[in-house]
Amino acid sequence: MGKKQIRVGMIGYKFMGKAHSHAYRDVPFYFDTDGVPVMQAICGRDEAGVKAAAQKLGWASYETDWRKLIERDDIDLIDIGAPNNAHAEIAIAAAQAGKHILCEKPLAMSVEEAKRMLEAVRKAGVIHMICHNYRFVPAVQYAKKLIDEGRLGKIYHIRANYLQDWIMDPNFPLVWRLKKEVCGSGSHGDLAAHSLDLARFLVGEFKEVNGMMETFIKERPIGEMSGGLSANVKGGELGEVDVDDASIFMARFENGAVGVFEATRFAGGNRNGNRFEINGERGSIRWDMEQMNTLQFYSAEDEPGMQGFRSINCQEEVHPYAGAYWPPAHIIGYEHTFINLFTELMNGIANGKNPTPNFEDGLNNQIVLEAVQKSAQTGRWVSIAEVK
User: Are 222 and 238 a contacting pair, CB within 8 Å?
Assistant: First the structure.
């Protein structure tokens, strides 16, 4: 029996479009999946730009209207890499058309939107995932294995931060990532979303949060993204920044653990400082995306005099996903996190089983994000149940 071909239509062709395209091309190279991606069509509003991207990234065709992409009968999976304010409309239309869906994070602009998206995919019976790629770092997957095996015992603490510095220059332009009407929030939805998704994956569900949010630069010259995290100024006119530059919050979890979270784009010298430490009764783990293949592990059960954090290079065949790539310690990188995620998506579509993280995780993440925003506005603890 031949493998199931999964014909992909992708919306967006810049930073995430490039990362996703690379992953679709490389899934069959590294993994023997039951479903094989076919790069059928790419979509973007700028015809010259999307045509050039289709040729460079390896797509068979292109569209300039996402509605036409969804209407095509030669598309099985819609990949949403558009700005946040377009996620709900596209995802709901795709579900109604019977398409499977992969959506970039954060899932939606609000809890209400996320609920409608989850309802739509459930009603349609399609496979759905949210692209929290950091779950698929072999070291993070191995951390999950250690926790599930009880190597840390009861979890007491998680402290997580996601630190960047790419908008510290006051003259960095006002791009879509800094406009509330397009992205919903700033570092909170962009960066903290990853940290709290990892916390839910590794520690458990949140119970209540208490947070604060800050905007340091109130006005910026108007501009647009030019690829990656770079941007160009358009003229000299200033516009208001109405999203957060930094988000900081405390949390209590359902299982009794406590957490401290920080997300900012104003931490000079941190290009992509996505980090966490988890402490339990029997041990601790540390991870840093900038050293993504290394997991630091401490066991309280080591003999006295031998105790301390050990560094594990999670590139052995026993580590999740690592065995599909190179010999031990021939390390992988950022792009492979997407490949690992996409293997689960391809197998899920082929076998009719929904992988995680999916729209249910996206909704639960959105609830935590909104609870923190409510706490920042009211200056009090906000329970997750209050926002649900």
Answer: yes
Q: What is the C-alpha separation between 275 and 320, in angstroms, rounded?
A: 19
Phi/psi at 265 (nearest 5 deg)? Answer: -110, 20
Backbone Cα Rg of the chain? 21
Query: Residue-wise pLDDT tens for the chain (388 aa)?
Result: 579 999 999 999 999 999 999 999 999 999 999 999 999 999 999 999 999 999 999 999 999 999 999 999 999 999 999 999 999 999 999 999 999 999 999 999 999 999 999 999 999 999 999 999 999 999 999 999 999 999 999 999 999 999 999 999 998 998 878 889 888 899 999 999 999 999 999 999 999 999 999 999 999 988 877 667 777 777 678 999 999 999 999 999 999 999 999 999 999 999 999 999 999 999 999 999 999 999 999 999 999 999 999 999 999 999 999 999 999 999 999 999 999 999 999 999 999 999 999 999 999 999 999 999 999 999 999 999 999 9
Structure tokens at 82: 């558009």
Contact in structure between 245 and 252 (CB atoms under 8 Å): no
How many angstroms separate the Cα of 296 from the Cα of each of 16, 18, 257, 329, 341?
Answer: 29, 31, 20, 15, 23
**Distance of alpha carbon 178 from alpha carbon 369, whole angstroms:** 17
Residue 82: which of 16, 147, 26 has the closest Cα? 16
Angle made by CA atoms 105, 111, 115, in degrees to the nearest 5: 90
Orientation of helix 111-124 relative to helix 87-96, angle to 10°: 10
Strands 283-288, 294-299: parallel, antiparallel or unpaired by DSSP?
antiparallel
User: Could you tell me which of 187, 190, 169, 171 has the C-alpha nearest to residue 234?
Assistant: 171
Residues 82/50, Cβ–Cβ less than 8 Å = no
Which stretches within 42-164 are classed as H helix?
47-57, 66-71, 87-96, 111-124, 138-148
The DSSP call for residue 97 is T
At position 25, the amino acid (one-letter code) is R
Amino acid at 262: E
What are the two backbone dihedrals, phi and then psi, of residue 45, each rounded to the nearest 5 degrees? -75, -30
From residue 35, how far is each of 39, 81, 125 by CA, in Å?
13, 21, 18
Contact 359, 353 (CB under 8 A): no
